[in-house]
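writing this on my phone so excuse typos. first protein, seq and then structure
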Amino acid sequence: MFTPQDSDFRKLIEAMPLCIILHDARTKEILWANPAALAVLGFTLEELVPLKAPDMTSSAPKYRRSVGLRWLEGAARTGQRAIEWCYRSKQGVEILSEAVATLVRLAERDVLMVQFRDISREEQVKRDLRRFESRLRTFMQDLAEGVAVLDADGAIRFISDSGLRLIGCSEGNLLGHSFTELCDDKSRQRLLANLGCKPPSRASYSVPYRIRHGDGSWHWHHATCRYIELEDDLRGHLLLFRDVTEQVTAEEARRASEQKLEYLARHNAMGEMAVAIAHELSQPLAATRNFIEGALLRLDRNAPANEQVAFGLNSAVRQIEHASLIIKSVRGYVVKLEQAEQVVDLNEVLAETQYFISLKGQPCRVRIEVTPASMPLLVSCEPVLIGQVILNLAFNAIEELMDLPLAQRRLRIYTALSRDSAILCVEDRGRGIEAGHQEKLFDGFFSSKVSGNGIGLALCKNIISRHRGEIWAQNVSPHGAMFCFTLPRVAAKGTVAP
């Protein structure tokens, strides 16, 4: 068994890179120092031994001699005591150190072995890190984007103050909880599909998602993500996210506007085609009528006409006249007119649409009752547009009734005077308006029909609003719905009626 000699212990201590100074445990005077300590302090052993604390310590108040003595006395009493101490070298350089004083009982006397190391570089690094962290926190506090780190299951490992502010939650409520559970179903599946990739992709990728904020409102976020592994074991998917709800809403409004324009363009094209078809059909119908009438004249002139043949030909002529009347009505209604308001009787506008409403209702066997007011209801409007509103409301009601029992297929349209306004109502005996839909009926693209897009009612509201009127819907008792609109009434000369 190897047993080192006293000289060996001294050689070991002298060879140590750690700085060591020996103090007398009772008087606290310096007894000895190893070469590493002498090199750092810049003194020889002969110069160091007689020195006192003020001679080799920073002049700062917290490094006063009395503080150093209390530290050494505490080590002599308890066996060991640590302190941050600032030595001063022979050249005047201050050396911030971590010093540990340990009581060692030697054969000759008790000593305090002080081991110290220069931590000035470490402290500078710590100060730099604290300064950097403070600046980073300040910058991130004012960011419009949030930062979060999620694991493969979507649990939140880290989230920045700006991220908490964006979501409207406190840190204690989110750390460790699932980020994806705050999202809707589609967004949750999309996020988990990216987070669960194995091996995780270290390339950046973008992902949109819809998330519920702390106040319960739903928002759209857009995130840039990538997988990270930090030295402090923080690993996962780094999300840099921002709220894009306003942009998404604006884009949806733009698409809705484009769809509305496309819808109007299609209807305009339909009107143009209707005029063209009506024009093209009028000529062959007129020629067919002439041929039939000519055939009847020849039958009468050459021989007594066969009664059955004559009846058939006369019936064909009546049907042709009926078809010509329909084509004339279509041409008169869809032909382009200069859009200008004029004073008209709302009863007359209703009368002009009555024929088309009856055509729509006959195949569905809907009983239609039209009851105009007993007095003229003069309004300033574009008759074609107001007529379109009446048709839209009536056609919607007929489509609602067509699948119901015959007894319920009843539609009533009437006009009346309501204070200083003219009112028109379309009342059906259908299933009524579902709860929660009444406020949305006139919103763009809302529809309760399987194949509907809701443009009709939205345009109706737009037209009536342009004419300074109001439009609404309500359920009626015992069942059914009523759609009504009002227009300001005017006097005969165009002034507003009293």
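second protein below, same order as before
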Amino acid sequence: MKFHFDDVAFSFQALRTAGHAAYAGADLGEVLVTCRNIPDGDEQAWYREWTALAERLHHIGDEALAAGHRVSAREALLRASNYYRTADFFRVENRDADTESDRLARCSRQTFARAAELFDVPALRLEIPYEDTTLPGYLFRADGAGDTARRLPTVIHHGGYDSTLEELYFMVAGGALRRGYHVLAFEGPGQQSVRREQGLVFRPDWEHVVGPVVDHALTRPEVDPDRLVLWGTSFGGLLAARAAAFEHRLAACVLHNGIYDFYELPLRAIPPHLGEWVAEGRDDVAGPALDVGMVQSTRVRWFLRHGMWVFGAKTPPEALRACAPYNLDGAAERVTCPTLVLDAENDVICHGEARRVHDALRCPKEFTVFTDAEGAGEHCQEGAALRFHQRTFDWLDERLSLA
């Protein structure tokens, strides 16, 4: 689905931002006007225009709150948070030294935190014990949260390669709350604020991340311990499946979307001989070839530069090799809880991955494909949140006896 831009990466990211309008994370007119002012593939203009929009909404939110207009303030601050995230997306040249990237990320977190306090049931900010530190999270509570005698089903949700903690509200929590689910959303190692503030990079044994989060969820009086759902988005679909293979306190798992082997994805975007050079460690020839690819493709450049940051790699070939341990070999067959595997018809990079996951599972399972004809065929159903939530939560309702 082309959305305003010919550049594939720009088109998808603009659609992603616009799609969050379903839960007050964007306004379509704002998105279209902003995109109109960005030349195709111009990353500096992308940063400039989305930043200007975010700062304008930030100011509107501040003014509305000062005047006592809580709903207007909440709505403006939610959009500002999403637009700050969008502005920062392509700033991957050297994130550790990029003070403006840090500022944008901080503004995205702060505007969302202020908006979350203005929800009808205010969200609770969490610091989840993890090894010798903590992981950031939010507990988004459905109506009736104050009645501890009425524990509600709870979705434990994490993102993937690039999503932020705050964006998880627009992705899943907004739809869950309408249906009477709590959502405990969190970031783990390698993900946004954990990488920025603690320097922790991704780890393939994700069960050691999810386990402490489940431990924490079970201490909450609002949470029904018999109706815990693990939900992973994008790369998180692989991580969640890996965690579910070893974490057996789950009533269900949602893989949004299913990915079996993360290393396979970037290899599909480069010539086979280049993939062989990377695997063989021939970085003297692989490095310059990847540099050429990064010049020619916004998507390749972003994936490799971001990968260097989230995996702690020093070069693009190292970033590619860092993907190699992330697969479901020996894990998929160990998942025991009912599992829903989602797929998207237009997801060319991940083509076949969800079906591969589904076929490897031995638990009760279901496979759901979202199509282009229904407007839901893009990766992770971006731009079709309501249709995606309808099908996914209806499946959960039936598994958890809520229907």
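Strands lie at 124-130, 133-140, 152-158, 182-186, 223-233, 252-256, 339-344, 365-370. thats all i got for now
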